[in-house]
Amino acid sequence: MPPPPLISIITPSFNQAQFLEKTIQSVLTQDYPNIEYIIVDGGSKDGSVDVIKKHTLESDSLLSASGPQKHKIAWWVSEQDKGQTDAINKGFNRAKGEILAWINSDDTYNPGAVAQAIKYLIENPDVALVYADCNFINEDDRVIGKFKSAQTDYRRLREGFVHIPQQTMFFRAKYWRELGPLDPSFYFAMDYDLWTRIAARARIQYLPGKVWANFRIHTTSKTNVADVRGWDEMLRVHYRDGGGFFSLIVAKYYLRKITGPLWKWRIKRNA
Questions:
Q1: Does the CA dihedral 95-97-103-108 come out positive or negative?
Q2: Is residue 90 one of the residues assigned to a domain?
Q3: Res 79 pLDDT > 80
Q4: Which of 7, 167, 176, 177 has a CA-to-CA distance to 266 between 20 and 30 Å?
Q5: What is the DSSP string of the chain?
Q6: Which range among 28-37, 114-123, 127-136, 234-243 shows the weakest confidence by mean pLDDT?
Q7: What Rg do the C-alpha atoms of the chain give, in angstroms?
Q8: Is pLDDT of 132 > 90?
Q9: What distance in Å separates the CA atoms of residue 270 and residue 263, rounded to the nearest whole number?
Q10: Is residue 1 part of a domain?
């Protein structure tokens, strides 16, 4: 029997020591046996490096708050970079896995997520990217909402129907090699840009009813700080790929400018 495919998971991080421990534990305690975990830190000064170093030693007996640690960090670096997109690119450039994913340093995986995703990709070789449901959690790990995940495709992505929680996304490395890297000029929509490029080439699939990850909402998260900027960047993709002004994504952009503050207020009220 061939060994299970290697998955490379990247965590970009900068001054997130408050949440980084939970993120690392959620990766290292996954029950999938073949994980390459890479952390790319941007030169944090808040204790993040100490958190990372704690998990670099391989030990079958090492325990975490989430249970026995099954894996170790394969490689990490802490040095100044050009931001999150640059960090993810740096990590994927070192990755050896057949499957790729990234989990940000304030988000977490749920138990079994990696094994379920890879099982689906093995059984469905025509699928390039798979994703599932995702909870919103607050700074204390309490569930405060749910991401509106849904099936999407190239046409719907181009119309602004994203519906992919990045935290739950797993995709085949061949598409990174063919279509990557992430565009470093994007601060927020680098994932949307990649999804659009992948969906133009192959099938992407949503698996309803499986909650694979948790998207943390807190005062300094990018979703709170720069949500409008994300839609600005999505429009850049739209116009770059030949889209016009009189289109659904442009209408959604202006609607989002109106409703976005209300959405963030509702999330913060529940936190």
A1: negative
A2: yes
A3: yes
A4: 167
A5: -PPPPPEEEEEEESS-HHHHHHHHHHHHT-S-S-EEEEEEE----SSHHHHHHHT-S--TT-EETTEE----EEEEEE---S-HHHHHHHHHHH---SEEEE--TT-EEPTTHHHHHHHHHHH-TTEEEEEEEEEEE-TTS-EEEE-------HHHHHTT-----GGG-EEEHHHHHHH-S--TT-SSTHHHHHHHHHHTTSEEEEEEEEEEEEEE--TTSHHHHHHHHHHHHHHHHHHHTT--SSSHHHHHHHHHHHHHHHHHHHHHHH-
A6: 234-243
A7: 18
A8: yes
A9: 11
A10: no
Neighbours of 60 (CB within 10 A): 7
Residue 2 located in a structural domain? no
> pLDDT at position 232, please?
81
pLDDT digits (tens, 9 = 90+) for 177-195: 999 999 988 888 999 999 9
Supply the range of the domain harboring residue 130: 7-270
> Within a domain: residue 121?
yes
User: Alpha carbon 92 to chain centroid distance?
Assistant: 13
d(CA 99, CA 118): 8
Q: Which residues contact 82 (CB under 8 A, 6 or more apart)?
A: 184
Is-above-0.90 flag for pTM? no
- Residue 143 corresponds to which tokens in the numbers above? 């569930």
* Count of domains forming the chain: 1
Closest by CA to 148, choosing from 167, 158, 135, 130, is 135
Spatial contact of 11 and 39, defined as CB atoms under 8 Å apart: yes
pLDDT value of position 221:
57
What's the CA gap between 142 and 270, in Å, rounded?
10
How do residues 29-69 score in pLDDT, each as one tens digit?
Answer: 999 999 999 999 999 998 999 999 988 864 444 545 445 55
137's tokens = 């959690």
